[in-house]
Design a protein that fits this description.
Blueprint (H helix, E strand, L loop, with lengths): L19 H8 L33 H10 L4 E10 L9 H9 L11 H4 L6 E10 L3 E8 L2 E8 L2 E6 L4 E6 L17 H9 L6 E11 L2 E10 L6 E9 L5 E8 L7 E9 L17 E4 H19 L13 H6 L2 E3 L6 E5 L16 H8 L2 E5 L2 E7 L4 E5 L3 E5 L3 H11 L1
Parallel strand pairs: 6-12
Antiparallel strand pairs: 1-2, 1-11, 2-3, 3-4, 4-5, 5-6, 7-8, 8-9, 9-10, 10-11, 13-14, 14-18, 15-16, 16-17, 17-18
Helix pairs in contact: 1-2
């Protein structure tokens, strides 16, 4: 393996080093995105070849970040293997029902709706087949034995097809939203994850090049990003960067507590030829049930109206016009800096009492309360819900504090906010 220079410096690099590259990487708009993975909770099992590490030219961390920023790959196809280990409790299928309710579907939505279907990627191991041809055409298929779920973006149209239920979802991209495609923006490739991580690079961050590897049959450098601060649940982020194209091929996030990776996403097979145009063609199969996006939105509004009527009689439940959930999220604030940042907002309603009984004494509220740890502080009382990466504190008055920080750091941040 060739010697690869480590660069443990932060963005204020000395003269001669491309320090601004990190800032450019943080602003860089990725032209290549793939539909089908949910919010930073997907992963890939290791795909490092056993034949030895490739011998590549020496490169600094600043130069490697600049290489990522300059990557202009717009066509690709390949296979991604996804594994997630957030350490979530087994809710016996309850999480699917909660996700459906949170989406306002009341359990009546289409199984092909991507906003609901892709929550299944939040745990376990999955195989995805992906294809990309610029910002207007992407396809991802989630393979599950003989069953398959496909999400296709082709021009204005977005199609979701669940072969198991023979249901189809159809939506459209808001052209005024630009390349992001509005709410239908495909969430992520390893490159998207990498650039989100690089936004955190500042004086609180260590960045080094840790040798080379082979990923999906391609030679790559390994960029390692670590918090300098104590209190973060992030141990390290490793990004395998393709030597030839500069495109991240693999992204791995390991927790400070050790053990298996929490998030590890990348390719097991990848090629950069333009996929055939027919790859992105879709016609609903004969007899399939087709649900239009507008129909789902109307159904969500109908259920939201019912829920609003129920909440009106609850003690302490503020009407939306007086600062309900939407208003509370709009008022979100960030406490602290760097890797120890904590987001806080007011839900506009009662929280989860620390006695675990729930605001209405319901079995569900009591069950949820039992999953967390009860805490007290300057903020009053509350419950901390923990995963291997994210901790969230819900106080009795309905204030939420959430961040990739330890339980102690989260409670300290909440106390400092009062």
């Amino acid at each position: 393996m060739a010697p690869n220079a480590s660069d443990d410096r932060t963005p204020t690099a000395p003269a001669g080093e491309p320090g601004p590259a990190r800032r450019r990487a943080a602003r860089y708009v990725v032209p290549v995105t793939v539909m089908g993975v949910a919010a930073a909770t997907i992963g890939l099992v290791p795909a490092i070849a056993s034949s030895g590490d490739p011998d590549l030219p020496e490169i600094t961390a600043a130069q490697l970040i600049e290489k990522i920023a300059k990557s202009d790959v717009e066509q690709l196809s390949g296979t991604v293997k996804v594994t997630t280990d957030l350490g979530l409790p087994d809710l016996g299928g309850l999480e699917s029902g909660l996700a459906s309710g949170a989406l306002g579907q009341g359990g009546d939505g289409s199984s092909a709706d991507p906003s609901a279907k892709l929550t299944e990627l939040a745990s376990g191991t999955h195989t995805l087949r992906v294809a990309v041809d610029g910002p207007d055409r992407q396809k991802v298929s989630v393979l599950d034995g003989s069953d398959e779920y496909s999400l296709i973006h082709n021009g204005k149209d977005v199609w979701g097809y669940d072969s198991k239920s023979d249901q189809v979802f159809h939506g459209t991209v808001d052209e005024e939203a630009g390349e992001d495609g509005g709410k239908h923006r495909p969430p992520a490739t390893p490159k998207d994850f990498a650039e989100e991580a690089l936004k955190a690079v500042d004086d609180t961050t260590s960045v080094t090049v840790d040798g080379t590897a082979q990923v999906a049959g391609r030679d790559a450098y390994k960029l390692v990003v670590k918090p300098r601060q104590s209190g973060s649940t992030v141990g390290a982020i490793s990004i395998a960067v393709d030597h030839e194209t500069g495109m991240p091929l693999k992204f791995t996030l390991t927790p400070a507590s050790g053990g298996a990776a929490v998030v590890d996403v990348g390719f097991t097979k990848v090629g950069f030829d333009r996929p055939a145009a027919s790859t992105f063609d879709f016609t609903p199969p004969e007899g399939a049930e087709v649900t239009e996006e507008g129909d789902l939105e109307k159904e969500a509004e109908r259920h939201a109206g019912k829920d609003s009527g129920k909440d009106a009689g609850r003690p302490g439940k503020a009407p939306e016009s007086e600062g309900g959930p939407a208003g509370g999220l709009d008022g979100m604030k960030v406490l602290g800096e760097g890797w120890n940042s904590v987001a806080t907002f007011d839900t506009g309603g009662p929280g989860l009492p620390a006695d675990g009984t729930g605001s209405t004494g319901s079995d569900l509220d009591g069950f949820l309360g039992s999953l967390g740890d009860r805490v007290k502080g300057e903020f009053g009382t509350g419950t901390v819900f923990s995963t291997r990466l994210i901790n969230a504190l819900i106080t009795e008055d309905g204030t939420v504090y959430v961040g990739a920080v330890t339980k102690d750091a989260l409670v300290k941040a909440a106390e400092g906010a009062k």
